[in-house]
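EI: anyone free to look at a 181-residue chain?
SC: sure, send it
EI:
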Amino acid sequence: LRLEVSLGQLDPRLRLAACARVEPYLPAGARLWGRTRLGLRCVDGAVRWNVFLPITVKAYGPAWVLAGNVATGAVLAEHDAIQAEVDWAAEGAAIAANHQAWVGLVAVRPLLAGQALRQNMVRAPDLFKSGAPVRVVVQGSGYAVTASGQAMSAGAQGQNVRVRMANGRVVIGTVLEDGTI
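SC: here you go
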């Protein structure tokens, strides 16, 4: 990544006392990514003070950018995006840096041409719909039990779903790649 750091300005109305040693620090919860702030405190002066300096950290690198608009629920294909250099720090969500991170996944909201693809913009496609019959497998050391149930919601790989079993009990499990729970 190619980094660019821009320092903002302190409020010109501030009247800070002279200080022999100013100590910079990262405030709790702050990240050195995107628009943030850097703390400055006087540790050796007649009057101790503490201020925050606005900074912007941009991190340019390769990413996939949408070639055209994509509707909610559309399955993304390789031709839907092209590689370009973008600011990874422009948003909080992680960039989908390689095409395996988005090809074959479903758009979770309308996406616009020119947007950099981020992990929160896509999800795995549903492997079954609500009400569909599903197979539930419980495994342990030396045993495996298989039963049938009915999905109470749609399920995509890696999601936790609720399943109503034949006896009326509801269990929760994780959807595997082949659609079993």
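EI: Residues 95 and 118 are 4 Å apart (CA to CA).
SC: 👍
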